[in-house]
Amino acid sequence: LVLSLAWLDPALGDEEEDGEVVAEEEKEKEEEEVLSDEIKEEDNVLVLHEHNFARALSEHQLLLGEFYAPWCGHCQQLAPAYAQAATELRNQSSPARLGKVDATAQKALATEFGITSYPTLKLFRDGNRTHPLAYTGRKDTQGIVRWMQRRAGPSATLLHDTDTAAAFASSEDLVVIGFFKDLRGKAAQAFYEVAAEMVDLPFGVAAAAELFQAYRLSADTVCLFKKFDERQTDFPVDPEQGLDTAELTRLLRVHSLKLVTEFTNETSNQIFSANIPHHMLLFLNKSSSEQLSLQDGFKVAASAFRGEVLFVVVDVSGYGAEVLSFFGMTPDDAPTLRLVKMENNRKYQMEQDSFSDTAISAFIRAVLDGKVKPHLLSAEPPEDWDTRPVKVLVGKTFEQVAFDETKNVFVKFYAPWCSHCQAMAPAWEELAERYKDREDIVIAEMDATANELENITIHGFPTLHYFPAGPGRKMVEYKSARDVETFSKFLENGGTLPVEPPVVTKTPGNGTGKEDPSVLGTEESRDEL
């Protein structure tokens, strides 16, 4: 551009040359600033790099660092909430601060802290950079604030007497209080660790003898107080084994839920984080009083399976309508029951719905004992499913196509709403067009939200599987680049990618001025179920 302008007008060319000098000076100034250990802020978030990172650690007792990539969509989505959390913590005069590192530019820091995906959040405490703590909270403003607050101050409130304990126990719908004879003992310290992680629950701790007596406790015990179902659930500490943090977390999650929980926007996170292996679902229309009465038997059955099966009511006329397609259902199918195995999303259905507590209990027991086969969804095959370059598979036709011993079949499992699937769709179509005349190669796709397979579980989208010709029902998962040329190499090489010699470059970078996401780390490239 500079040269072309100079050709047009010498005066303009001279002006541009002066601009170059200014630009060079500005560049030198920027480089000096980068080399400085000065810490700048953007929306109360510390802007960190290789030369000021140590200073930031020395000045801030608790520092949460976000390692991001400018091109990462998840990072861009997090940015407003992260900045708001930084502002709230600063307004509270908290010792906790938030910082951010462009990991694509600060490669030394990214390498030091093992950054392989974006965004990655790590907590640095007391200036220690050798053992940062991985962030485990929710990635929204309140989730970040609460997680940092628990680490900035005591994770549990010390309760001195019966009045403060009673007020604390009734302060919210769910409250956890740990009663320990020795607050410096191992059990109490483990309790504090759990409290620091479970930021959505208030935690208190007590050691006074009068409190043990008031709550009829004789030994170390963790108590969950709630304003529903049974009002108090006790978890005694094993005097020999001590307090296991993972087990206590699991128990608190399980018992924090009502015996029967309605699926709503507010409860969905609780339901899926409870880590209960089976979910029993009652689909009903809450506008129908007749259907509402079915909850009685459902709740009676629930008590015998607490911790093993989570009982959930789904209102098909409300928030639950959004999940009906996952079960291949419409609102008209209510009332009905489904049991889901969470490890593989297998769904089980009664031959004929019966809503008594005895029938529900018997059905659940039969599923748990392996006596009931899963109910597999399948759409109807389109009339032209095999006339297009990309063959459209459904549950009913998958077996005969994918395991045809005369064909090499490459299948894309997708979800209609998946942005990553939509992004790679043109490449998949082009690939199919390229191989449409090959008798031995089939390029296919299947909507995995509308079709299920007995022995193949899809956990994220898109998932690509290759089924080579020949006996043995073999399957290879494709995990490489999603472009036509790489797909072709994979197919031409019989379901593997040929080993290529490494490319040696004299200077780092990819010559585009943009970070190559394959060099350092990537944004999540599959949408999870």
TrEMBL record:
The keyword Amino-acid biosynthesis does not apply. It comes from the Eukaryota. One of its GO terms (biological process) is response to endoplasmic reticulum stress. Keywords: Chaperone, Disulfide bond, Endoplasmic reticulum, Isomerase, Redox-active center, Repeat, Signal. GO terms for molecular function: protein disulfide isomerase activity. It catalyses: Catalyzes the rearrangement of -S-S- bonds in proteins. Gene3D superfamilies: Glutaredoxin. InterPro entries: Prot_disulphide_isomerase, Thioredoxin-like_sf, Thioredoxin_domain. Residues 3-153, 353-496 form the Thioredoxin domain. It is found in: Endoplasmic reticulum lumen. Residues 493-529 are annotated as: Disordered. The keyword Nucleus does not apply. Disulfide bonds join 72-75, 418-421. Its EC number is 5.3.4.1. PANTHER family: PROTEIN DISULFIDE ISOMERASE, PROTEIN DISULFIDE-ISOMERASE A2. Belongs to the protein disulfide isomerase family. NCBIfam families: ER_PDI_fam. This is protein disulfide-isomerase. It comes from Sclerurus mexicanus. The gene is Pdia2.
